Amino acid sequence: MDSKFIKTIKWLGLGFLEPLINLFQGKETDKNVRLVLRQIIAPVLSVFIFLGVCNFGASYLYNIEKERKIEKTRADQGGAAAEEMERCIDSGEASCKPNSLPSPGDVKEGAKALWADHKKISESKKAFKNKTAKINAQRKASGLEPIKYTGRPSFVDQIKTSLKTVFAGFLLAAFLAIPAGIVLGLSETLRSSLNWIIQILKPVSPVVWLLLVSMVIKTVLANSDSDKSFIISFISVGFCSMWATLVNTTMGVSSVDKDFLNVSKVLRLGVFSNVFKVILPASIPMIFTGLRITLSVSWMVLIAIELLAQSPGLGSFVWEEFQNGASNSNAKIIVAMFVIGFIGFMLDRIMMIIQKLVSFDNN
Amino acid sequence: MAAFLELNNVSKAFGEGANRVEVLKNINLKIEESEFVAIVGFTGSGKTTLISLIAGLIEPDEGEILLNGKPIKGPGPDRGVVFQNYSLLPWLSVQGNVELAVKKVFPQLNKEEREEHIRKYISMVNLSSALQKRPKVLSGGMRQRVSVARALAMDPQILLLDEPLSALDALTRGSLQVEIERIWSDSKKTVMLITNDVDEGILLADRVIPLTPGPRATLEQVFNIGFSRPRDKALINADPNFKKERNAILSYLHKVGKQRSDQETLNIQLPDLKPQLVNRKLPF
């Protein structure tokens, strides 16, 4: 029972908790205390040290910015105004706060503000829904589009939009790259004929892909009223991130163990069984390594692409906050940074678990 | 009448130009139906090349290989191969591995008949308890039995065993040798066994044919083994004839090995060099 529990924990990638569980059960105290120190206490400590360094850096920059602001006021408006400004800054008033790197405390406040904002917006959404329920039912009955909430999206809505875009892009990448990779892996002629194109397109920057995709989409969907910015951004994400899967699938398929191919040859398997019974299962680990890279690349480029494509999501949230310049904008940007990092980490973990489920060599 | 399997002047070389190595040269071999033939030889003498040729995985440069009087074209399920390294597909269970072969060779069977067929061959190698297990959790001996079951389940005309027991420990090898003989006498298949173990060859085969050391390995002398069947390992080990046969084969192998190495010794003039200390600074 216990060992099964520990196995599950390890399988979920939470293996660092194992010594703690053992310690609670009083197993091998000395060894487990040492392991807990190394695997849990030390990382937690390093987080605190990190926060401390951030705090120090932030207050250092804050002081520089504060001095400059006071000096500027003195030069522009004279000594009395400068003293007034200093008092205003020390009182912590938002209107005269120097604009610099936010401290961990500010970031916490920013996160709270974002959460409160989300609460407020979801409530107003709910109210809107209640209010329009009746009208929408009528509109639906008469074949009209329902009235949609058009207010400002909250931070959580932005996260949802970003995840939607990244999944659409990731699926596009997988659907393009895996079949293409298999075909390229099987045919050496095709591989060498497309090699140049792939090598050249692979390192192209996300920004250029975005521009290219929008050139095409603008023409193709000129008269459609679909969400163009969403389509452009997810296609760009897909194109930027598919290369890792393409290259890995090609590699995996073209380097299947000779023994497995011999089995297939001796059994005289047809092309279909050869691909689906031998080659694909053998290259699943490689394909999934590619998919993991693809997912993390798509999450990374997504932010830049949203920022440029004016498509809603975390990227545009960051950009709007930067343009906004309110007293807690910088803190919100840092909150977004950590949220982006954490989601990226979780996505990778999920892919890792799926990989363990489907591949033969590591479970 | 032509023999069941016939190799006529088969030669195979690898590489080009100066790197060309003639592995097999003028191989002539005739195997009758239901015969058990063992080919013994040193490592690197081209044993696996020989079996790959018969399996159709590679093509001979010269000569022809006839099965039932017809030249072989590529690999096929009429020749069941048991590879040295088992070559089981790790993502399939024991049953799945055998099923892959059975489905291909007997597409007319329905699901129940097919499972029945698979179970028959898996129980033939005493693995019924491991039907649903993956190869990864099986021991080397068990994996090799799965490989044998897979080859047998295809109901091939000839079974090609490529050093099937060389990766196993001595005890497992002994028990599998007994099983191979039993399976052979039950199924009366033609078997060609490749091995580097002379004792194994004598224990199992009707004829032991040493492959001379490579390059340009060939088959020259044939040793007929006359022990009665079924053979008992302990009895045969004690039999003075066994020692005689073994000594004959081993001394033959050593003789041709020595002749070969005498011929092959190259007399290369080594340059007269002295080590020199280079006085240079390392970058780090």
Short characterization:
The complex is a heterodimer of chains A (363) and B (284). Chain A has 363 residues and is mainly alpha-helical.
CATH fold group of the largest domain in chain B: Rossmann fold
Question: Which range does the strand content of chain B fall in?
Answer: 15-25%
Shape of chain B: globular
CATH architect. name of the largest domain in chain A: Orthogonal Bundle
| Major sheet of chain A | none
Number of domains of chain A: 2
Largest sheet of chain B: 6 strands, mixed
| C-alpha-based Rg of chain B, rounded | 22 Å
List keywords for this structure.
heterodimer; A: 363 residues; mainly alpha; MetI-like fold; globular; B: 284 residues; alpha/beta; Rossmann fold; 2 domains; 6-stranded mixed beta sheet; 4-stranded antiparallel beta sheet; 8 helices
Word description of this protein:
The complex is a heterodimer of chains A (363) and B (284). Chain A folds into two domains: 2-96, no CATH class; 153-358, Orthogonal Bundle (MetI-like fold), CATH 1.10.3720. Helix content of chain A is 81%, strand content 0%. Chain A has helices spanning 2-11, 18-24, 29-77, 79-90, 104-141, 155-186, 188-201, 206-220, 228-254, 258-266, 271-309, 314-324, 329-358. Chain A is globular. Chain B has eight helices and ten strands. Chain B has helices at residues 47-55, 94-105, 111-124, 140-153, 170-187, 198-204, 233-238, 240-264; strands at residues 5-14, 21-31, 36-40, 62-67, 70-71, 79-82, 158-162, 190-195, 207-210, 223-224. Chain B has two domains: 34-61 and 69-78 and 158-261, P-loop containing nucleotide triphosphate hydrolases (Rossmann fold), CATH 3.40.50.300; 88-155, no CATH class. Chain A binds chain B through residues 259-260, 262-263, 265-269, 273, 277-278, 281-282, 284, 360-361, and chain B through 55-57, 74-77, 79-81, 83, 85, 87, 89-92, 100-101, 104-105, 134, 136, 154.
